[in-house]
Task: structure prediction
Amino acid sequence: MAHEESADFLLSSSLDYLYSAALRVAALVNVADQLADGPADPGELAERTKTHPNALARVLRLLASRGVFHEDGDGRFAITARAQALRTDSPTSVRDAVLMITEPAIWRPAGELVAGARTGLAAIDAVYGSPFWEVHARDAATAGEFDAGMGQWSQLEARGFAQSYRVPPDGLVVDVGGGRGRFLVELLRIRPDLRGILLDQPIVVSNHDLGQLDDRDRWQAVSGDFFESVPPDGDVYVLQYILNDWPDDQCVRILQSIRRSMKPESRVVALECVVPPGNAPHAGKGIDLVLLASFAGRVRTEAEFAELFSAAGMRLTRVMEKTGPGFLSIVEGVSQ
Result:
């Protein structure tokens, strides 16, 4: 019987990727938005979403089996509490983040993960013949989905960070590699006493979202290369989903660059997945395989973060969990 249970579990698990595929369909055609005002049958939904009625119903049937949407006895579908965050107008919407994590430049390399397992290098090279950031640079659709998804994810993580971590009053936060600045926008909205500097590559900073903040005196957008230098005299330097994108030697370069600009009392805060010991499920273990598929970095343990900080002339002071949605822990370090 044990072998039969094993076979059943493994066969069922091998189909799990289809749930992600179905989530992408629902997000792409905005099913949750269409059901916000009440249930609808597949024909109505297909007309609104420009899809095929039977095909869409089959996609939603799988999602309903996990509580994302609900199918009644007449074949009509309704939104559920679990599906609310797929709505574009939800305050905790993850619609763009779902599209990012299932975009082709991440999805396709995951199907070739064996290449990464054999070589230790990102599997994306076997699929596209180039690293993710080169694919990102030459494909506007990939870049758009990734930037929108990371922005949405960053905004959600910022809320938990602001509630969980004490940034000094009237402090200066430097968002290192902060993309379009959605994390910084959310943080400065929650903490009106803070000022912020966004640092990223010129092409990214040129499309920043900091203008959403009313007070122009509270923020600054700076273009640059975080491997070389970062703005000086910040009270807190934030790295969100940065260190996990790079191998150890490159992470040490980034941290050393920050260390050169820090004041004696400055802190570095890396918002990253931290994998705990043991075999319990943890989102970081899945994200680690996303990195093996499409990027050059990896998710680390607390001990591995301590080694990175030490190699850069810093000291890991604590790792703490934050509140709210998202998968990131708060990894704090200071200059030695």
Remarks:
- The domain at 2-86 is CATH 1.10.10.10 (Arc Repressor Mutant, subunit A).
- The chain is about 45% helix and 15% strand.
- The chain has two domains: 2-86, 153-335.
- The mean pLDDT is 94.
